[in-house]
Amino acid sequence: MLNMVFLTNSWLTSFNQPGLCITVAMLLHYFLLAAFTWMCLESVHFYLVLVKVFNVYVPKYILKCCLAGWGIPAVVITLVLIINKDFYGNGSFSESHPYSNFCWIQDDTVFYISVVAYFFLIFLMNTAMSIIVLLQIHSVKTRTQKTFRFWKR
Fold first, then answer.
1. What is the pTM for the complete model shown?
2. Within a domain: residue 51?
3. Which of 104, 120, 130, 153 is most buried, judging by how many CB atoms fall within 10 Å of its CB?
4. Over the chain, what HEC string results?
5. How confident is the model over 71-97, as pLDDT tens digits?
Protein backbone atom coordinates (compact mmCIF):
# COMPACT_ATOMS: atom_id res chain seq x y z
CA MET A 1 0.00 0.00 0.00
CA LEU A 2 2.92 2.33 0.66
CA ASN A 3 4.10 1.90 -2.92
CA MET A 4 0.59 2.30 -4.32
CA VAL A 5 -0.05 5.55 -2.44
CA PHE A 6 3.41 6.84 -3.27
CA LEU A 7 3.04 6.15 -6.99
CA THR A 8 -0.43 7.69 -7.24
CA ASN A 9 0.38 10.68 -5.02
CA SER A 10 1.45 13.09 -7.76
CA TRP A 11 -1.51 12.17 -9.95
CA LEU A 12 -4.01 12.62 -7.09
CA THR A 13 -2.41 15.97 -6.25
CA SER A 14 -3.25 17.22 -9.73
CA PHE A 15 -6.98 17.27 -8.83
CA ASN A 16 -6.34 20.26 -6.51
CA GLN A 17 -8.64 18.96 -3.77
CA PRO A 18 -7.30 19.87 -0.31
CA GLY A 19 -9.22 17.07 1.43
CA LEU A 20 -7.93 14.50 -1.04
CA CYS A 21 -4.38 15.77 -0.59
CA ILE A 22 -4.62 15.57 3.21
CA THR A 23 -5.99 12.03 2.94
CA VAL A 24 -3.24 10.93 0.54
CA ALA A 25 -0.51 12.51 2.70
CA MET A 26 -1.98 10.89 5.81
CA LEU A 27 -2.13 7.47 4.09
CA LEU A 28 1.42 7.82 2.83
CA HIS A 29 2.61 8.74 6.32
CA TYR A 30 0.61 5.91 7.91
CA PHE A 31 1.89 3.19 5.59
CA LEU A 32 5.47 4.42 5.93
CA LEU A 33 5.25 4.23 9.72
CA ALA A 34 3.51 0.86 9.49
CA ALA A 35 6.38 -0.49 7.37
CA PHE A 36 8.88 0.73 9.98
CA THR A 37 6.81 -0.75 12.81
CA TRP A 38 6.52 -4.14 11.15
CA MET A 39 10.27 -4.10 10.56
CA CYS A 40 10.73 -3.61 14.31
CA LEU A 41 8.26 -6.38 15.11
CA GLU A 42 10.18 -8.69 12.80
CA SER A 43 13.39 -8.02 14.76
CA VAL A 44 11.57 -8.77 18.03
CA HIS A 45 10.28 -12.01 16.49
CA PHE A 46 13.82 -12.82 15.33
CA TYR A 47 15.02 -12.30 18.92
CA LEU A 48 12.31 -14.55 20.35
CA VAL A 49 13.03 -17.33 17.87
CA LEU A 50 16.83 -17.32 18.10
CA VAL A 51 17.56 -16.17 21.65
CA LYS A 52 14.53 -17.04 23.77
CA VAL A 53 13.98 -20.34 22.00
CA PHE A 54 12.33 -22.35 24.77
CA ASN A 55 9.47 -21.47 27.11
CA VAL A 56 8.36 -18.50 25.06
CA TYR A 57 4.62 -18.57 24.83
CA VAL A 58 2.87 -15.29 24.23
CA PRO A 59 -0.91 -15.67 24.30
CA LYS A 60 -2.51 -14.29 21.13
CA TYR A 61 0.91 -13.38 19.74
CA ILE A 62 -0.26 -12.63 16.19
CA LEU A 63 -3.13 -10.48 17.43
CA LYS A 64 -0.73 -8.47 19.60
CA CYS A 65 1.69 -8.07 16.69
CA CYS A 66 -1.13 -6.88 14.44
CA LEU A 67 -2.36 -4.42 17.05
CA ALA A 68 1.15 -3.02 17.45
CA GLY A 69 2.00 -3.10 13.73
CA TRP A 70 -1.13 -1.29 12.62
CA GLY A 71 -2.06 0.51 15.85
CA ILE A 72 1.11 2.39 16.79
CA PRO A 73 1.29 4.20 13.41
CA ALA A 74 -2.44 4.98 13.71
CA VAL A 75 -1.83 6.62 17.09
CA VAL A 76 0.96 8.79 15.61
CA ILE A 77 -1.21 9.83 12.65
CA THR A 78 -4.15 10.55 14.95
CA LEU A 79 -1.97 12.77 17.15
CA VAL A 80 -0.74 14.72 14.12
CA LEU A 81 -4.31 15.17 12.87
CA ILE A 82 -5.56 16.23 16.31
CA ILE A 83 -2.80 18.80 16.69
CA ASN A 84 -3.36 20.32 13.23
CA LYS A 85 -4.71 18.67 10.09
CA ASP A 86 -2.95 21.34 8.02
CA PHE A 87 0.39 19.69 8.77
CA TYR A 88 -0.51 17.55 5.76
CA GLY A 89 -0.83 19.26 2.41
CA ASN A 90 0.39 19.90 -1.08
CA GLY A 91 4.04 20.80 -1.37
CA SER A 92 5.47 21.78 -4.71
CA PHE A 93 9.13 20.97 -5.20
CA SER A 94 9.48 22.99 -8.38
CA GLU A 95 7.32 25.65 -10.02
CA SER A 96 8.64 24.81 -13.49
CA HIS A 97 7.45 21.18 -13.28
CA PRO A 98 3.67 20.98 -12.78
CA TYR A 99 3.83 17.27 -11.93
CA SER A 100 6.25 17.79 -9.08
CA ASN A 101 3.44 18.48 -6.60
CA PHE A 102 3.35 15.98 -3.81
CA CYS A 103 1.03 15.56 -0.83
CA TRP A 104 3.12 15.12 2.27
CA ILE A 105 3.93 16.62 5.69
CA GLN A 106 4.36 20.39 5.35
CA ASP A 107 5.90 21.18 8.73
CA ASP A 108 9.57 20.29 9.21
CA THR A 109 9.26 19.77 12.96
CA VAL A 110 6.40 17.31 12.52
CA PHE A 111 8.40 15.50 9.83
CA TYR A 112 11.49 15.19 12.01
CA ILE A 113 9.53 14.00 15.04
CA SER A 114 7.01 11.69 13.38
CA VAL A 115 9.21 10.20 10.64
CA VAL A 116 12.91 10.71 11.33
CA ALA A 117 12.79 10.19 15.11
CA TYR A 118 10.39 7.26 14.67
CA PHE A 119 12.73 5.65 12.16
CA PHE A 120 15.73 6.32 14.42
CA LEU A 121 14.03 4.53 17.35
CA ILE A 122 13.17 1.57 15.12
CA PHE A 123 16.74 1.54 13.79
CA LEU A 124 18.18 1.49 17.33
CA MET A 125 15.82 -1.31 18.33
CA ASN A 126 16.73 -3.37 15.25
CA THR A 127 20.43 -2.79 15.81
CA ALA A 128 20.17 -3.89 19.45
CA MET A 129 18.20 -7.00 18.52
CA SER A 130 20.68 -7.87 15.76
CA ILE A 131 23.65 -7.54 18.12
CA ILE A 132 21.94 -9.71 20.74
CA VAL A 133 21.09 -12.37 18.14
CA LEU A 134 24.62 -12.33 16.72
CA LEU A 135 26.11 -12.69 20.21
CA GLN A 136 23.77 -15.61 20.90
CA ILE A 137 24.73 -17.33 17.63
CA HIS A 138 28.41 -16.77 18.40
CA SER A 139 28.09 -18.22 21.90
CA VAL A 140 26.25 -21.29 20.58
CA LYS A 141 28.97 -21.79 17.98
CA THR A 142 31.70 -21.47 20.64
CA ARG A 143 29.95 -23.94 22.96
CA THR A 144 29.48 -26.40 20.10
CA GLN A 145 33.16 -26.23 19.17
CA LYS A 146 34.23 -26.78 22.81
CA THR A 147 31.90 -29.77 23.09
CA PHE A 148 33.20 -31.19 19.82
CA ARG A 149 36.81 -30.87 21.00
CA PHE A 150 35.93 -32.54 24.32
CA TRP A 151 34.31 -35.54 22.64
CA LYS A 152 37.07 -35.76 20.06
CA ARG A 153 39.66 -36.30 22.82
1. 0.85
2. yes
3. 104
4. CHHHHHHHHHHHHCCCCHHHHHHHHHHHHHHHHHHHHHHHHHHHHHHHHHCCCCCCCCCCHHHHHHHHHHHHHHHHHHHHHHHCHHHEEEEECCCCCHHHEEEEECCHHHHHHHHHHHHHHHHHHHHHHHHHHHHHHHHHHHHHHHHHHHHHC
5. 999 999 999 999 999 999 887 655 555
